[in-house]
Design goal:
Two copies of one chain form a homodimer. Chain A is α+β, with helices and mostly antiparallel strands. Chain A folds into two domains: 144 residues, Jelly Rolls (Sandwich); 74 residues, Winged helix-like DNA-binding domain superfamily/Winged helix DNA-binding domain (Arc Repressor Mutant, subunit A), CATH 1.10.10.10. The first copy, chain A, is built from eight helices and ten strands. In chain A, the strands form three sheets. In chain A, strands 1-7-2-5 form a four-stranded antiparallel β-sheet. Chain A has a three-stranded antiparallel β-sheet with strand order 4-3-6. In chain A, strands 8-10-9 form a three-stranded antiparallel β-sheet. In chain A, helix 6 crosses helix 8 and helix 7 packs across helix 8. Chain A binds a DNA duplex (30 and 30 nucleotides) through helix 8.
DNA sequence: CGTCGTCTTGAAAGGTTTCAAACGGCGTGG
DNA sequence: CCACGCCGTTTGAAACCTTTCAAGACGACG
């Protein structure tokens, strides 16, 4: 919980919400008001207290987060990813193992959603929650019915589309600020195979990922 | 949409809801009132009109349903399963491919939730939705990080627990009215491997599935 | 300059799919 | 009543995909 809000940080969220529903000036204003109080998380930290303290959602201003479930034997699976502009709605009153922990993948900045949002904003947040569910379903299909390279490609497309809506990606290029290890935990693969899969996609001309930048070839 | 409600059909749902929250007499009464109008689906039929016609949820009185996503190349993945006593809350205003179709696995009987539920019932339905999400997360972990026999065993445990809460299963035995083919689509496996995995579990004494009845050995 | 985390590659082992065939139960029609 | 066909189950063998174990290369950082 620190100061240091940069109003520009809110732009991805505004872009994303505007893609769902037409926001009025008042809506943008109320978002901007809340973004003055910034919550900071450093890489690796868990977002837990938030849902204990308030039932409000959080807006990701900066940095990526992951919703992760850790099994015994060190296996871990990432359930969902949050990028700047996303709204994180904590699942209340549920065993944290069931709901999955939310951890910061880098240094992260968040702010709360307005305490009394207007109808429009409320609808927008509702739509966000529906999109959350859509991502979980997509993840299930990906893990259940796709091969390694299909999973990789499909996930890259999903991330590209999400970043693009938030205004954070050029047409087919975006910054991917995570390790291959982490991508492995998303795609249900080992880090080694993730690396090989990436090589295959590069050799077949589908996509490249170098220097933290992904470029997807024309579909 | 037919008549033929049997009040006893409502018991699984009452059991399940009571496990979440203490229901008052009025709550049970209002549930019972709605269960007079029964919606019937025959095996293979899709539950679509419901969410177009009303935003109310549906209570499963009889039969199993699956939420399924169908890929091209004939691959299909079951995202979630509904058993008697479950509450199905359709995802509104979302591309049906994204949300997944809900299909009846056998002849199914449903009724709607009350149009104006009391606070208690409203809370209970809210908790049901949270449990829905929990199941999706569990499914993601299962597909991403478990082997075939782990998936099978874990899923059987989940179904046993759910049926038990609804009052539909003895301690370690329950009716499983689906084909191996369908279980394969749940677990992200082929039908052939599902069969082999079942054999492994039987030989290692973990569980048996014969004549439509599953028996799980002591944990 | 050494260390650490990440990326990369090889070879072998393991798990899962694919293709093919056969078996069993069960309802239908001859 | 029996034969047939259909659907779901079961099994085998080979191909394929992914993991595991091991080692080396690279870059960032103290």
């Amino acid at each position: 919980m620190k100061q240091g809000a940069n109003p520009a940080d809110l732009q991805p969220a505004i872009n994303r919400l505007s893609a769902l529903i037409a926001l009025g000036d008042g809506d943008v204003e109320s978002l901007r008001a809340t973004s003055n109080q910034v919550f900071a998380l450093s890489a690796g930290q868990e977002l837990i207290k938030l849902s204990q303290v308030t039932s409000r959602s959080a807006i990701v201003l900066k940095g990526w987060l992951a919703r992760v479930r850790q099994g015994r034997q060190g296996k871990r699976q990432i359930l969902d990813i949050y990028v700047p502009g996303d709204i994180i709605t904590p699942t209340p009153r549920v065993d944290p193992y069931v709901a999955g922990a939310i951890v910061a993948l880098q240094d992260v900045a968040l702010c709360l959603t307005p305490a009394s949002p207007g109808d429009t904003l409320r609808d927008a947040f509702q739509l966000c929650r529906q999109m959350d569910e859509g991502r979980l379903l997509r993840q299930i299909y990906r893990l259940g019915r796709m091969t390694a390279s299909e999973r990789m490609y499909d996930w890259m497309i999903e991330i590209r589309d999400r970043l693009r809506i938030a205004g954070l990606a050029a047409d087919n290029e975006f910054k991917l600020p995570v390790t291959q290890d982490l991508v492995a935990d998303i795609l249900g693969l080992t880090a080694v195979h993730t690396n090989r899969t990436l090589k295959d996609l590069r050799l077949s001309g589908k996509l490249t990922w170098r220097m933290g930048k992904v470029r997807i070839a024309a579909e």
